[in-house]
Known about the structure:
Layout: E1 8-15, E2 21-28, E3 34-35, H1 36-40, E4 50-51, E5 53-56, E6 66-70, E7 77-79, E8 86-87, E9 96-97, E10 102-106
Antiparallel strand pairs: 1-2, 1-5, 3-10, 4-9, 5-8, 6-7, 6-10
Amino acid sequence: MASPAADSVDVKVTNRGANYREDTKGIPVNGVQQSIAAVFGSAFPNGKVVINVIEVTQPGNAAGINIQTGPPEGPLKTVRTDGTPLKVNGDDGRELDVTNWVIVASR
């Protein structure tokens, strides 16, 4: 179980295509939206975050945390805290440019 004192949750973004790339960062559990570009952009060419999935890397540390991502104007999608990857482009799993999306974690 997550400690009440946990101040971040590790989230990984992955491009599973021919240009495979991934990055994991700690997302502060503070209810403040951050842009995907600001968090993960440095790991992707030209700061353009093109991925297939977003997932929690340590589900045991994410219990009780709500993680949301999507376009800033909404609607936001839930990143499951059990480690199940969120396919950012729906069930087909295609790549999607999420550079302009936001991510937020809260209790």
